[in-house]
Amino acid sequence: MTDDTQPQPQQPQPQQQPYYPPRPPYEPTYPTYDTTYAQAPAPSPRRRAKRGVGLMAAVAIAAAAVGGGTATLVERWTDGGTATASGAVSGTNVSASSKGTVAGVAQAVSPSIVEISASSNSGKSTGSGVIITSDGEIVTNNHVISGASQISVQLSDGKTYTAKVVGTDPDKDLALIKLQGASGLKTATLGDSSKVRVGDEVVAIGSPEGLTGTVTSGIVSALDRDVTVAKEDGGQDGGQGDGQGQQQWDPRQGWPFEFGGQQFNGDTGSSKTTYKAIQTDASLNPGNSGGALINMNGEIIGINSAMYSPSSSSGSTAGSVGLGFAIPVNTVKADLDQLRSGGDS
Question: Which of 307, 121, 97, 125 is nearest to 216 (CA)?
Answer without folding.
Answer: 307
